[in-house]
Design goal:
Number of helices: 10
CATH topology: TIM Barrel
Helix content: 40-55%
Strand content: 15-25%
Order of helices and strands: EHEHEHEHHEHEHHEHEH
Radius of gyration: 17 Å
Strand order of the largest sheet: 1-2-3-4-5-6-7-8
Largest sheet: 8 strands, parallel, barrel
CATH architecture: Alpha-Beta Barrel
CATH superfamily: Aldolase class I
Length: 250
């Protein structure tokens, strides 16, 4: 069985370098025990250089939480894919629901995907509906996100991309049990179908699909048992050594 991919998204955490080093130390222990899983950690930009030095060329791979599509220029506050590649970043979360909530558009996601691929960074493209409805209109929302994200992306590059399905309605403590493995599998199949229509079924088959949305130590095993789910995008529980370890062990 192919290894599953466990991606820890630290978001805007922790508050100090000392805490970040502690999390990295714990993550190294998790990776050492995870025989059937590959581990990626995505700290805030400010910790990436420190994380690369600390992790070296070990089992954990480094990811960024975002990137900008231009290589350089007058773009105050932005970080380019080229810069990230230079310091050893190999993955980048793109189009996360929290970024979209701040105004990120589908067209910008597409530019970032292309920039990541050009820099040999694997884009983890987040898609997901805000709410479900009995008529299936939510499928149109996800289809639109997929079509825009992969517009103009060569079919040969699909194998270097990852899609993370994160249903926004399932995110948060109050919705901890809302999403099910069956829900995730259905959407993984749908996502590949949409991509097959635009890039061919053979290429779509190569696409890796993660699940993200209130992933916990309690439900991780159920999602990971599904062959159509390549791995997990973990938020808050990646900040707990114990919980992250249990998720990887699943």
């Amino acid at each position: 069985m192919a290894k599953k991919l466990i991606v820890g998204n630290w978001k805007m955490n922790p508050g100090s370098f000392e805490e970040a080093r502690h999390l990295l130390k714990q993550a190294k222990k998790v990776a050492a025990k995870a025989r059937n899983a590959d581990i990626v950690v995505c700290p805030p930009f400010i910790y990436l250089c420190e994380a690369k030095k600390f992790l070296g060329n070990g089992k954990i791979r480094l990811g960024a939480q975002d990137l900008f599509w231009e290589q350089n220029g007058a773009y105050t506050g932005e970080v380019s894919a080229t810069m990230l590649e230079e310091i050893g970043v190999r993955f980048a979360i793109i189009g996360h629901s929290e970024r979209r909530a701040l105004g990120e558009k589908d067209e910008e996601v597409n530019k970032k995907v292309k920039a990541a691929l050009k820099a040999s960074i694997v884009p983890i493209i987040c898609v997901g509906e805000r709410e479900r409805d009995s008529h299936g209109y939510y499928l149109a929302a996800v289809k639109k996100q997929i079509e825009h994200a992969f517009a103009g992306v060569p079919a040969s590059s699909i194998k270097n991309c990852i899609v993370a399905y994160e249903p926004i309605w399932a995110v948060g403590n109050s919705n901890f049990e809302s999403a099910t493995p069956e829900t995730a599998v259905e959407m993984a199949i749908f996502i590949k179908k949409v991509l097959a229509d635009s890039h061919g079924s053979k290429r779509a088959h190569d696409l890796r699909v993660l699940y993200g949305g209130s992933v916990s130590a309690k439900n991780a095993g159920d999602f990971l048992l599904e062959k159509d789910i390549t791995g997990l995008l973990v938020g808050r529980e990646s900040l707990s050594a114990q919980k992250f370890s249990e998720i990887a062990a699943a």
